[in-house]
Write a structure and sequence with these properties.
Two copies of one chain form a homodimer. The termini of chain A are far apart. Chain A is elongated and about 65 Å long. Chain A has 198 residues and is mainly α. The structure holds a DNA duplex (30 and 30 nucleotides).
DNA sequence: CATAATTGACCGATAGTCAGTCAAAAGGAT
DNA sequence: ATCCTTTTGACTGACTATCGGTCAATTATG
């Protein structure tokens, strides 16, 4: 038998090879030829590993999200207050320039999923959502155990996720000052959920 | 001098003439030729009134948002509870099939703004955001005056807007059950903001 | 030599352009 | 007022450049 390449691995490799130009130009301003040349492969080969041009964004976002999750886990396992945990949960992804560049590509991915999303993309989004929902639920549960916040807040998990996604979108579409929005929100929100008795 | 047409009006007219096919196919699956034919004008004429293909979506969304605002105002001036007002604020836009169709096109508009938004689009989004922020602030203020809810909630306005936007996106990208999310959220959220003493 | 992998010339679709047409209005001469 | 000329802006669709995606041919591998 001839050589068998690890399709999944090569898919990732190609996407990663194009990471820089993807971040710089975005998928809309890139041609398949440019992508192929950057990855050092022929144009036709691209289609061995990707369904179409947009699919490349999907792959690189997969990588980004996984890195993002690691960073988040890293921060959340620190010994910080419940309030700070919620803050970081909301703020990570907006904190430095590199994250902001990645967000731009993530927005392109959202745009693709919204307008021509495949089953796989939706499945991936649901999976991510569940993963991050678990994280925030843990923050809440931990906060309740510590006696920092009220009972029953697990049910706000989903809303916090939607809130963060909304921020990601609005930061771009309506020029929102993200950090300001988050601190504003949190300062009031936390007084609402804080356990009042001593 | 030759005939002078009201450019702004004609822009709206063309977009409205294409309303149905826009809702049915979305801008991605429409060609300029198809659009021009539907509007009963030449292909070149389209570019007299629109910057590019996507600009047509911008125009029709302008119309939709204005209708949406009217509907919302209509509902909010009814004599209903603060909780119901917040519910409708969140829920309108998801309520019937026609609204859902319009939402699909709105998502395309969001996608466009996120990936290749113009100054005008961002300005429009900010303006809309401010308008709707005012509405929700009024709901809160009214609720506070009635003694239904705690003081200081105006500062949550912005967060509610982001939350709703997040829902709009996630409904599509992660197959979310919107109504469920809203009622879930509201049942807990409202107990948090409700005025406790009698 | 069989099979997997790669390739880039090629194709079809289409967004956007532009040189030219047309009709309405303005102006001027009578 | 009427006719004719000129001007102007709206409108048009054939045309072009671009580019995503395909596939027959080629190369590499074991």
């Amino acid at each position: 038998m001839a050589i068998i390449v690890d399709k999944e691995q090569k898919r990732t490799d190609i996407a990663c090879a194009c990471k820089e130009i993807l971040l710089e130009y975005g998928i809309k301003n890139l041609t398949i030829s440019h992508i192929a040349k950057t990855a050092g492969i022929g144009k036709g080969t691209v289609y061995e590993y990707f369904e179409n041009k947009e699919d490349i964004v999907f792959e690189i976002i997969t990588v980004f999200i996984s890195e993002y999750e690691q960073r988040l886990l890293e921060v959340l396992k620190k010994d910080i207050s419940t309030k700070e945990k919620i803050f970081y949960f909301l703020y990570i992804g907006f904190e430095d320039e590199e994250s902001k560049r990645q967000l731009t590509l993530y927005r392109e991915f959202l745009a693709i999923t919204m307008t021509s999303g495949t089953e796989e993309m939706v499945a991936f989004n649901i999976e991510c959502r569940n993963k991050f929902a678990l994280l925030i639920t843990d923050i809440f549960k931990d906060g309740m155990q510590r006696g920092d916040i009220c009972e029953g807040l697990e049910h706000l998990t989903s809303a916090l996720l939607a809130f963060k996604l909304g921020l990601i979108v609005e930061t771009q579409t309506a020029n929102l000052d993200t950090q300001r929005e988050i601190t504003n929100f949190l300062s009031l929100f936390y007084t609402l959920i804080e356990k009042k008795d001593t």
